[in-house]
Amino acid sequence: MFRSEFSQILLEASRDNYGVALSFFVKKLVQLDRVQLRKRVQAFVGDFVGKYCPQDASGQVIRVCQRFGLVAAAGSLAKEFRVVPWGKNEAEQAAAKCFAVWLDLRDNPTVPHEILTGLAQIRQYLEQYGESRFGKVGATSTSTISSRAGFKEVNANGTYDYLVLPEVFTKLVCMGFYPKVLCEVMANNGWLVKGNDGKNSTLKHVPGMDTKRVYYIKAPVDVRDLAK
């Protein structure tokens, strides 16, 4: 069967049977004791999270797992009410599989998605503009850099560390995110060198600007290895 044919069959079945299962499910549901039903569903969701959610998962991941657990609980009740012809634990297994697929799409389940996205944006900026907007410290070339974002210097590993100018870092590199939050995560993982005064920026001597505050970013790390 072609996908187009399968899609058409689903469309026709949904149109012809619209609302049938839901109406019967709701009728059965409202006949149960509300307090006992809540306790039962909460216990089911708690067990689901305990089985399928990583122990060190972020709060965001836990909440998503709870939503999948709620879907599984509804499916199990539908099976109990004989609304659907599913097998034992089929709803739970299906919800668990969907959650596992969702979880696999994340780089690191212990870190909130917005943090991972922000760090990925910083890395992308450095990779995209590392050559064109960052002058090399100690270089003898006198070529002018257009739209300068900062400077870069070779570290002990032979890769570059970046000295990003403050305005560029807060308004462009971290655009759409909270710089302080991203800086804290980077510092905790050795990606950002804080100043001796504890600030996220540090004083560095940069060519043509003497001593200036910059965001001292070490060579990017893999976000999958980040700690909270």
Structure characterization notes:
The protein folds into two domains: 3-104, no CATH class; 113-225, no CATH class. The protein has eight helices and six strands, in the order H-H-H-H-H-H-E-E-E-H-H-E-E-E. Strands 1, 2, 3, 4, 5 and 6 form a six-stranded mixed sheet that branches. 23% of the residues are buried. Helices cover 51% and strands 12% of the residues. The chain has 228 residues and is an alpha+beta fold.
Helix content: 40-55%
Which spans have pLDDT < 50 for at least 5 consecutive residues?
none
Shape designation: elongated
**Mean of all residue-level pLDDT scores:** 88
Structural class of the secondary elements? alpha+beta
Radius of gyration: 27 Å
Number of strands: 6
Oligomer: single chain
Largest sheet: 6 strands, mixed
In whole angstroms, how far apart are the ends?
Answer: 47 Å
Number of H/I helices = 8
Q: Strand-and-helix sequence, N→C?
A: HHHHHHEEEHHEEE
Q: Beta-sheet strand percentage?
A: 5-15%
How many structural domains in the coordinates? 2
